[in-house]
TrEMBL record:
PANTHER family reported in the protein's UniProt record: COPROPORPHYRINIGEN III OXIDASE (PTHR13932), OXYGEN-INDEPENDENT COPROPORPHYRINOGEN III OXIDASE (PTHR13932:SF6)
Chief location bin: cytoplasm
The gene coding this protein: hemN
Name of the protein in question: Coproporphyrinogen-III oxidase
Cleaved signal peptide residues: none
S-adenosyl-L-methionine is among the record's keywords: yes
Residue positions binding S-adenosyl-L-methionine 1: Y55, G112, E145, I330
SMART domains hit by this protein: Elp3 (SM00729)
Amino acid sequence: MTDTGLIAKYNIPGPRYTSYPTVPYWNVPQWEADQWCELIRVSQHDDRSKRLALYIHLPYCDSLCTFCGCHKHITTNHAVEKRYIDAVLREWELLSASLDKGSLIHELHLGGGTPTFFAPEELNRLIDGIRNLFPFTPEAELSFEAHPNSTSFEHLQALHRQGFRRVSFGIQDYDQVVQKAIHRVQSFELVTACHQMAKNVGFNAISHDLVYGLPKQTLAGFQDTVQRTLELKPERISLYSYAHVPWIKGTGQRGYSESDLPEPNLKREIYELSKQLLVANGYLEIGMDHFALPDDSLAKATREKKLHRNFMGYTPNASNLLIGLGMSAISECTFGFAQNEKTTERYLQLIESDRLPITRGHHMSAMDVEIRRHILNLMCHFETELPKDTLLSRLELELQLSELVSDGLVAWDGDTIRVLPKGIPFVRNCCMAFDAYLKDQHAVKRFSMTI
Ligand code: SF4
């Protein structure tokens, strides 16, 4: 079958698998705080789960980018910063009572929203407060997302002093027509200045996040974006597929029409051309949508088969316990998931009344645990092995994978299921064959398209 034929056949709504089960199928509508804390306690049974990954969601942004799929709160009132940081620190204090006293923080990521919306002094106060309760491991990776329009020398200096060495700049696309359509205007000159400033301060792991499939995007325009990115040679480049889900994300993604989006073949062409350029310039393709220079920690983790994936995306640090702090943040432990309240005011009110702000989540069954492992293996290493005592029905799995196998995208060899090079763009479709929850077609339609 031609590439065009494959895209027409397999470009269907499907999850990105930053979790399994995916959020629409979670089975706990409202966690009791005690139940969730108990689940965390029993999950910390081994050394790996005593090395925590911490994600802190900082939701405020000065201005709305219309393509945005994040949980954010748009405001220009910076008086909100102090109350929010107080709340996150209080949440950390409340949660820490359930953590093993020997826990260490092995990974910390500040995401958003816009972490650089906050003043450097507030970010300092946040990290000091986190460190006061549990120490970092000596090799811990501390990273943050930076908006080039609001990142100052003082931000970079403060976070570098706190031990941060990785910064991810949100770039998306340098084409001014696209920037206007997504309401996010930032020049290459500004990004270059920020990038250089970060290097001068001592950041040695810089990521640039690009997005393909955005409205008004063209092959030539995006090629130019990739070329400019290569001029700066960041250690890591994320090449995210734009997820068009206006029915979930509200008005933000309605600032343009469907006809402004590149059609699926063009979208794939943009990815493939970008990949060729990046690989020709020494980057290695990692997982589904990342590229890294050979010395980057993500490239090393891939070589050593230690690559992991969670709500933060791909990470070199596999921890069994991810604690999410802040509005909308998601936590994951061996046996389940929990998400925080998704409106800022409600999150703040709950914390201020000394209650954990958790809402819905999932309690994993043994079958969920096995399928999560296969999906993680496929998303990170493009292969997985069925254990002798698998809980899955081989017959049913064979049936679900049969078309991918006959189209030459997947090979099944003994107990090993492998995504073939031609099948890599369709890895989400392969994971869907394992997914035991995708029977509710109404819910499936809520996901973005797989290509
Ligand atoms: S893309 Fe980033 S800066 Fe823009 S609205 Fe979304 S979270 Fe805020």
